[in-house]
């Protein structure tokens, strides 16, 4: 790969990442005093063509949701009471 190829890849990656950040900020809004008006990025409308090719990552975590943690805790305490 030539230097021009590397530079083009870096620029495309920056444009793509900035668009995704901008799109996320314009589609999700905060409520209350934090919900100020955000100005749309000047290339936002022109970059919309990449949305069909972008997919959300499947993120896995080792942290359990709070509701599941409460359920497991209640099951554990119930089992401990039955054993005693």
TrEMBL record:
Domain MADF: 5-50
Record-linked Pfam families: MADF_DNA_bdg
Protein origin, superkingdom: Eukaryota
Name the record gives this protein: Transcription factor Adf-1
Gene source species: Elysia marginata
